[in-house]
Amino acid sequence: MELQSLRLKRHEERRLLGGHLWIFSNEVDTQETPLSMYKAGEQVRVQAHNGKLLGTAYVNPQSLICARLISRDEAVLNHALLVHRCEQALRLRTQLFDEPYYRLIYGESDLLPGLVVDRFGTHLSVQLNSAGMDTNRTQVIEALKQVIEPQSIVLRNDSSIRTLEGLPREVEVAWGKAPEVVELRENGIPLLAPLQGGQKTGWFYDQRPNRAMLRRFVPGKRVLDVFSYVGGFAVQAAVFGARQVVAVDSSRPALEMAEKNAELNGVGKIFNGIEGDAFAVLRQLKAEEERFDIIVVDPPAFIKRKKDHKEGLRAYHRINELAMQLLQPNGILLAASCSMHLAREELQDVLRNAGQRQDRHVQILMEGMQGPDHPVHPAIPETRYLKAFLARVSKR
């Protein structure tokens, strides 16, 4: 395959040499290599300003991240390379987990930028989040079929990231006969997740270790799970021994599946779902003088873009302060954020400020992040996005 070249401006190769995989449009020498000469998804040879080869990448002239490195040499993204990288990813996950329920491929961290694959036993949920991966969708599917031999592959190409890449948003079954709902096991607990509907890929494997953190705290306690989705925290807390769990979510279908998950585990009698806006529900619970021993606050990303930071940070302050108002003395708060643009120190400050405003003493007991099936690329800080603090909140 004869590739065109993409040349960088002087000194703009430093980040790539440090291990990063992204090239931004303002780093390209557009005098020598105008971005208009490339098609979205096209593979190119990346050169430093002096012509030195930096590797191969695929490009998208419509995106701020206009290129993503595939290799450090002249290897191209083809069936053989996809199979090799998928096999590498699989070896890691089989070392980490005894059962086939995990994030199989986590984009840049598995050297497959723009590709996300969640595994539910013999069913795969796939996101092609870049023009390069979307262009190669047939080869991606064939590689996954060869490595995993799944019964079905669902393309969950409905994320907002695809809009930024100039790609259509859609959901389709790419291989086999896919069920609407799949069963998984997490922390030893059977659970149901929507394969073709629901949020993202259908499940949030990234919170697995943070859900496990609750095991020692919940026996005999009353637990509130805010932004519950299909009950990941709530149902596991019930199985861990909580005396009552209350799940809050704005989606009726999500709560209905959470109820099914509770029934599946024999804890339906202690499970209660509340449909509604989380902020409004928490204010209503406060007005009714409800109190909980443990509260989980795991919202969707309030800060999706840098320009949303100020408003999103206020939302994190409001929701965690409302949660503290509902805690029993010496209660436990698990506060999480999946916003890449919110630093862990900022989330810690949210807890500190909420404690001060409520005249409470906050003690951080444990700190969590995404699970090991979402490995962090040390040169790409964007791959570490999930923050979680488990804190005791008591009277001063």
Any key phrases for this structure?
Transcription Regulator spoIIAA, 396 residues, Rossmann fold, Archaeosine Trna-guanine Transglycosylase, Chain: A, domain 4, globular, 3 domains, five-stranded mixed beta sheet, 11 helices
Unreliable residue stretches: none
Q: Strand content of the residues, in percent?
A: 25-35%
CATH topology of the largest domain: Rossmann fold
Gross morphology is: globular
Major beta-sheet overview = 7 strands, mixed
CATH architectural grouping of the largest domain: 3-Layer(aba) Sandwich
Q: Could you tell me the number of beta strands? A: 19
Give the tally of structural domains: 3
Query: CATH homologous superfamily name of the largest domain?
Result: Vaccinia Virus protein VP39
Task: Estimate the mean pLDDT confidence.
Answer: 96
Strand/helix succession: EHEEEEHEEEHHEHEEEHEHEHEHEHEHEE
Write the layout of secondary structure elements.
Layout: E1 4-7, H1 14-17, E2 22-24, E3 43-47, E4 53-59, E5 65-71, H2 79-96, E6 101-106, E7 115-120, E8 123-128, H3 131-135, H4 137-148, E9 152-157, H5 160-164, E10 170-176, E11 181-186, E12 189-194, H6 208-212, E13 222-226, H7 232-239, E14 244-249, H8 252-264, E15 271-275, H9 278-287, E16 292-297, H10 309-325, E17 327-337, H11 344-357, E18 360-369, E19 387-395
Parallel strand pairs: 1-3, 8-9, 13-14, 13-16, 14-15, 16-17
Antiparallel strand pairs: 2-5, 3-4, 4-5, 6-7, 7-8, 9-10, 11-12, 17-19, 18-19
